[in-house]
Amino acid sequence: MSVDAEIRDVRYSRYEGERRSRLAGVVSLARWGALRSLGARRGWKAKAVPITLTLLAIAPAIIVLGVRALFAEQSAIDLSDALPYSDYQAIIGVVILLFAAVTTPELLCPDRRDGTLALYFSTAVSRREYLAGRVLGAVVPLLLVTLVPLLVLFAGIMVFEEHPLGYLQDRWAELPRILAGGLILAAFYGLVGLAVASLTGRRAFAVGGYLLLLVAPSVVGGMLGEALGDDADWTQLLQLSVLPINFAASLFPDAEVPNSSWAWAAVYALVVGAAVITLLRRYGRGSDT
Amino acid sequence: MSAPSLTFDNVSRWYGDTVALADVSFTLGPGVTGLLGHNGAGKSTALKLCAGFTRPSSGTVRVLGSDLSDSPEAYRRIGISHDRDAFWPFLTARAMVALCARLRGVADPDAAAARALAQVGLEDAADRRMRGFSHGMRQRVKLAQALAHDPELLLLDEPLNGLDPAQRRAVVELIHRLGDEGRTVLVSSHVLHEVERMAPRVLVLVNGHLVASGATTAIRELIADRPRVIRLEPATEGRALARELVGAGLVESVRFDDGALLVESGDIERFSRALAGVARDVGARLRRVEPVGDDLESVYAYLHERARGVGR
Amino acid sequence: MIDASPTAPAPSRTRLIATDGVAKRYGAVQALDGVTVTIDERATGLLGANGAGKSTLMKALLGLVTPDVGTVEVLGIDAALHPGEIRRRLGYMPELDCLPLDMTARDLVVHMAELRGLPRRAAVLRASEVLFQVGLEEERSRLIRTFSTGMKQRTKLAQAIVHGPELVVLDEPTNGLDPSGRDEMLSLVRRLSSDLGIAVLLSSHVLEDVTRTCDAVVVLRDGRLVTSGRIDEMGGLMGEGVLVRGSGDLDAFAAILTARGLVADRRDGGVAVRGGAGEDELLDAVRDAAAEAGIGLRELRPAGRTLEDALVDALE
Hints:
The structure holds 3 protein chains of 3 kinds.
Chain A: H1 22-37, H2 43-71, H3 79-82, H4 85-91, H5 93-114, H6 116-122, H7 127-146, H8 148-160, H9 164-171, H10 174-197, H11 203-228, H12 243-251, H13 261-282
Chain B: E1 6-15, E2 18-28, E3 31-37, H1 43-51, E4 58-63, E5 78-81, H2 93-103, H3 109-119, H4 135-147, E6 153-157, H5 165-180, E7 184-188, H6 192-198, E8 201-206, E9 209-215, H7 216-222, E10 228-234, H8 238-247, E11 253-257, E12 260-265, H9 268-282, E13 286-292, H10 296-308
Helix pairs in contact in B: 2-3, 2-4, 3-4, 5-6, 8-9
Chain C: E1 17-26, E2 29-39, E3 43-48, H1 54-61, E4 69-74, E5 77-78, H2 83-89, E6 91-93, H3 105-115, H4 120-133, H5 149-161, E7 167-171, H6 179-194, E8 199-203, H7 207-213, E9 216-221, E10 224-230, E11 242-247, H8 250-259, E12 263-267, E13 270-274, H9 279-293, E14 296-302, H10 307-315
Parallel strand pairs in C: 3-8, 3-9, 6-7, 7-8
Antiparallel strand pairs in C: 1-2, 1-4, 4-5, 9-10, 11-13, 11-14, 12-13
Helix pairs in contact in C: 3-4, 3-5, 4-5, 8-9
C-alpha cells in the first residue's frame, strides 16, 4: 500500500560534506577582518571614513583624466607625463597613511579586547594562521588606495590615447611597476599598523600610536634636513611616513630621489622586520591579553 | 517579631525611563532569606537600596531601624559582599580584610580578620598577595571582609560564584550557621537548590515586582490552583496500585514513567493518608514516594510563569 | 592510532577520549599526576575542586598543553601529533567571555564554521540551523554586544556545534545564567547527547548540572583520577535505610516499627528507619506501619548518602 504523506526530519545532523583545507580558514579570517575594518555591520559612520579616503585617493587620477577629457584640444598635454606614479603616491601619501591608521586597528584590537583570541586559538586556527589571515586582511584593502588609483590612471590614459592597444603594448612594463609599488606601500603601512595595533586592545591608542610612530620621525628628519643643509640627504631616510613611497620611487626612476636604492631598502627592511617580529611576539604563547 | 532588620515600604526605583523596582514592600528579620529573580528583575537594585548605596525614588527603606542616610553609623552593622571585584592586587588577603575591619571601627582588626578568614577557609592563603588569587579565592575574601566586623545584617550577592562543589557546600553551611546565630542574611543566587539549603524564606522578584515572599513551603501551599504531583516507585504491583488509586478517586491522573508512577492529586492530605493502606491491600511494595514540584526550583518557575501570564 | 588528514571524515569508534598516564608539572605544582581514563559515554561530567587539575586536563585534551609524560587520544587522534586537527574536529565552549562584540551571532557562527573547513554555503546553512536549535533564531542578526548573558552562552554553544562535531566540551555553561536560563541551558545540553547525537564532556562546579545532564562522571583530586564511572552505579543506596516524612502521629509510627525489631529515629523532620533482614522486609514493614498508624505518607526515600554527597566526598 503506498503512503499518501511524508514527514521529513529536518533536525540537526552530522556534517558529511566537503571539508576544505586550512588555507580556507586563513582566507575566512582575512575576509571577515577586512570587512570589519571597512565598516561592515557598524553603521554608516564607520564606513564613511574608508570610503572617503578611497575617493580622495582616486581623485587626482579623475582630475587629470577630467582635464584631459575637457581641455585636451586647447592644451597639448601629454597625459602619460602628467602625473608620474611616484608623484601620485607622494601626493596621496597622507591619505594612505590615514587609511591604514583607521583600518588596521580593527583587525587586531577588538579580538584582544573581547577575548576572542582565546576562542580562535582553542578551537580552529593556529597562531600563525591567525596572523597570516589578518595580515592579508590588512594589506588587501590597502591596495584600494595604493594600487587602484594608479591602475585607474593607467586605464584612463589608455582610453584617451588614439591607439589604446598600441599604448598598452608600449607601456605594459609599467603594470608590474605599478603592482610592485602598490604592494611595497601596502605591506609597509599595513604591517606597521598591525604591529602597533597588536600592542593594545584599544583602537584609539592604536590609531594614535601609529600616527605618532610614523609622523614624529618624519618631522624630526625634516627639521634636521633643514638645519644641516644640502649634504644631509640621509635625513630623508628618517621620514618614515613616506619611506615606502621613496623606496618605490628609487626602484623605478621616473623621479629624482636622493639616497641609493640600497639605503632605502635597508631602512625599509629594518622597519618592516621590526613590525613582523613585534607581531610574532605579541601572538606567541602567553600574550593573549 | 522584634524590631525587623530591614523594611521596604512601597519602594520604587527608576533610572530615567527604566523601572528597576515597582512598589516593593517586605520586612526581614533574623535568619537567612533568599533573594530570587531573573536577570534584570531588580535584585541588584534591591541590594543597593539595602546597603544604602542609593535611595529609593519613592517609598522608604529602613535598615536596622533607621534610615541609612540619617544615621551612617548603621553601616558598621552591615556586611556586604558584592558581585563586582573591588580589591587591590598588591595587598595580602589578611591585610585587605583587616583594613576593611579597621574602616568599620572594629577594636582588634587583625584578630577579626584572622577569624573571618578561618571561617571561609582561607587561613593558609591569608598571607599571599591577592594578585595571584583565583576567582573562587577572591570570592571568599569578599565574604571574609563582609564578616570581619561581626555585622547584624549581611547582604550577599552571588557568594558561591566561582567556587568548586566542596567550597560551595562549605559556604552554604556557613551561611546557614550565620542565620542560626541570629543575624539577618539576604542572599541572592541563581542556583536554587542551594538557596533552598540555606534559606527557609525567600523573596521572589519578577520584572521589578515582588511576586512572593515568605517560607518556601508556605508559598507552595498557597499555590492552590495547581494539583500536586507525586512520584511513586512501586517495586511490585505497580499497575494494581495505579488501578486502585484511580478507582478510589484519590488521584486525578496517573502516568507511567520508566517504571515509576506519576500521579496528580487535588487533595494531597487525603491521598497521603490513604496511600500506605491501599499499597498494603494490593501488595505493592513502595520503594520511593517523592513529591514533585515542591522544591524551590519548581515553585520559582511557576511564579515566574504566572507573573508573565500568556508569554512566549 | 589513526592518522588524520584534514579532509577525511571522522572515523567511527566507541572511544571518545583516552588518556594514559598523563602528567604535567608547572614549576612546583604537579597539575596532573598519572591520569589514565577512558571516556566513551554519551555525556560525561568532569568534576574537580579548584586546582585539582581539571583545566589542565581539558587543555591537554584540546591539545593546548603538551603533557610531560603520557599520551592523550581524542576521537582517535593523538594530541601530540595533530593537536590542531583535534581542535578542528571538537566543539569547545569556553568559560570566559570570548565573543567578538562587533559581529552578529550569525556572522560569528558562519565564520567559525568556515574556520573549521566548511565551504561557505554549507557554513551559512548550518549556522542558520544551529542558531535555531539553540533558540536564537530571532536574535541572530543582532550584534553580540546587545546580547544578554543567556544569549551569549547560547551563541557560544552554537559556534561549538555548527560543524557537527562528534564531541563537544562545555566549560561551565550555566555561568551567570538566572534560574530559567540555567534550566533551558541544561535541557539544551541534555538534548545534545540524547537527540542530536553529539557526545558531551561537561565541566561544572554545580553538581546539579552534571547529575541532570550526564550519564557518567570523571572526578579529579590533586591531579589524580579519583573515580570514574556511570552515575546510576553510584550513590543513593539503601544500605542505610529509609527516611519517611509525613503528617499525623509519627511517634506512633516509629513505635510500631521499633516493636517489630527495627530501628526508628526521629530525624530531619521525619523518621529514619533501619534494619530488617533485607530491603524488601524493611520496605514492607514501613508501609504496613504507616497504614496502621494512619499517617499521611508524604515522602519516602533512601536515607543514605545522595549522589551529590558521594561526589563531594570524592572531591575533597
